[in-house]
Amino acid sequence: MEEKVLYSAAQPSGNLTIGNYIGAIRNWVNLQHEFTCYYAIADMHAITVRQDPAQLRHRTLELAALYIACGIDPAQCTLYVQSNVSAHAELAWVLNTLTYVGEMERMTQFKDKSLKHPENVNMGLMDYPVLMAADILLYQTDLVPVGIDQRQHLEITRDIAARFNNRYGETFRLPEGYIVKEGAKINSLQDPLHKMSKSDENPNASVYLSDDRDTVMRKFKRAVTDSDNCVVASEEKPGVTNLLNIYSAFKNCTVAEAEKQFEGKGYGDFKTAVGETVADVLAPIQAEQKRLLADKQYLADILKRGEENAFRTARKTLSKVYRKVGFYRGE
Ligand code: ATP
Ligand code: LTN
Hints:
three-stranded parallel sheet, binds adenosine-5'-triphosphate, mainly alpha
């Protein structure tokens, strides 16, 4: 039987947070041996928000190194940069003609980002989910591991694929989301009702994968909690619940087990333990990323190989699409 296909991506739009790690990349690592995996660096998505060009280029390479440092094996997976494979933009154009403006306007991420950048509500921002659908559908993907914030984009991907198949005949496989319950949403340390985001303006709200031990400890110490000093998860205690989620995700235990461990202990001890646990996981990843970034040629070779691999598969789907919609391809 043919191996199932798994696809995911992250944007090189800032320093990755522990939310990206737990909600996405760690699962990619765990799944890489069971599936044919494509892991992209979504630079075309990143420019829907203003990026400094030199920084974007640098962050792209940093992200490639980070994927590998987190445990993604480039010999097992196709690791590549989205803009290097032109089929993404080309398929997105065709899919645009099957997507309604109204449904894009209703996307939560579009609404959030429009509020955040009212001076730059560009067409790309609105079209973001269509490009994401193109990413996924080009590879005839079965499974898409993402954090819960991306669920709506996966639903629209399936809708668009089904619409295309209905109109032009069976072309795309309909992908399923893979959203693990634990860690699907890590929240901000300063505003625990909202998602931790790499583009948050308050640096204390997010723990970055690049933060050193002292910074990690300080951020957890300052994390917003409540005043009852009792380490249990509940809806009325979003700050403590978030810290328990983070702790259990990094310790690979359940929230109940974590609660038990901190029975009778106060927030001070708890926050120190969360900080140490996270810092212990981050240290070897940081060291490995640094080592990889020292060898730019090695990274360039991996991304080139990834691009060639991705191009081969993507082109097959795109040719089929062009044929089905009636584009002239010569006699
Ligand atoms: P930004 O906030 O800059 O728009 P982002 O932090 O959401 O970006 P992406 O690169 O768009 O990051 O997402 C990469 C992956 O990380 C996605 O699968 C997303 O669902 C997941 N992810 C992002 N933030 C979190 C979080 N706080 N908790 C769990 N998963 C997350
Ligand atoms: N929008 C995504 C990043 C992304 C993605 C994808 C994820 C771009 N293309 C394809 C999964 C599949 C996000 O996670 N914020």
